[in-house]
Sequence to fold (289 residues):
Amino acid sequence: MEKEYAIRIADNCIRCGRCVKVCPSKIFVQEEPRGPVSLHHPQNCIVCGHCVAACPVDAVVHEAFPPERVHAADYAALPTPEQLELLLAVRRSNRVLTQRPVPQEMLDRIIAAADRAPTATNARQLGYTLVTEPAALRLISEYTLRVFGRIVRRLDNPIIRPLLRRVAPGIYRYVPVFKSMQRDYAAGKDRILRGATAVLLIHAPEESRFGAEDANLAYQNASLMAEALGVSQIYMGFVLTAVRQDKGRRLNELLGLRGRRICAVMALGMPEFRYPKYIDRDAPTVMRR
Fold:
């Protein structure tokens, strides 16, 4: 059972009604404009904090958000739209990495940024596993290559190959890529993690309805923070594909994530250089109704 938090309206309430308007659970009730605010069914609180953040006079007292966790918002200090557009434009997967590890304080800020992302119903069920030990990083690469090795063997099966080539011809263009990756790894060149010194796995409970969606929102936050810090971040599509093919069973066991579903994977490293230019993409296709 989830914890029920104590909530009350202090005497300094100015009856502005903001808490009433922002509460997604309709816990705050105001019968008429500028009338007193009361609480109905506070046990339905999803602990989003909207009420505390919206109150201009600190009249909403919420056990989950003591004063030390509440801060004034300085909107003048926010990046301008142009600065944000530039950050979005320069964010790019940089696979040319040094052997220098990402400083721990940077990794902490990246994870903190990820955890600020919204989640469906404010469930806050995401977990983060940070892998930095060289042996564990090799384990992730080797796991991925093993899964793809099994896939390649199936695709090369002379009985099913003719059928698959007809119904899914696009699959076979990856076969030489997978084989090349295996040869390179055997020769000491890891084309999975690309020399990354850290891997961040974002996971949710297996039963979570919106685990993948929540994780992708968290990933985007983490990616932008990494870019702002000068840390390279690489979307680990091969690792995530291997997890889905294997249903995460083996990797979950190896990383102690039983009962969790890995939804997003990011490799992190310190870049050898930063891209001096950015490129305009094709204009998006927008349907207007």
